[in-house]
Amino acid sequence: MSTGATTDGESIPEIEVSESAADEALSLLDGEGMDTDIAGLRLFVQQGGCAGLSYGMRFDTEPEGDDQVYEHHGLRVFVDPASMNYVGGSVLDFEGGLQGAGFHVENPNVVSECGCGESFRT
């Protein structure tokens, strides 16, 4: 399930979620005792980092009224309109490994990232 995002009449590509990211987030939501039929993962963009913008993620019990809501592999993802302008068309993935596990946003709108990969510029 997803709702179409538009900005000034132009369609913004939706957010995709890999199966591994959905599985990990759903497991974490369940561990927090949150209802995965209503609750979800909020993906947002904030000012910060050496490149100017950084991603934020948190669990929310429900979407806000103006959020875009996407559902992939049973995970609901909430994105506010301002953040949608920066992350439209992105893929949320989960990577594990010796260097540490975590969620990663593959964003086609990024023109440069800082050296550590924690912030970006569009």
TrEMBL record:
Transmembrane segments: none annotated. GO terms for molecular function: 2 iron, 2 sulfur cluster binding; 4 iron, 4 sulfur cluster binding; iron ion binding. GO terms for biological process: iron-sulfur cluster assembly. It comes from the Archaea. Residues 14-118 form the Core domain. It holds the Pfam family Fe-S_biosyn. PANTHER family: IRON-SULFUR CLUSTER ASSEMBLY 2 HOMOLOG, MITOCHONDRIAL. NCBIfam families: iron-sulfur cluster assembly accessory protein. This is Iron-sulfur cluster assembly accessory protein.
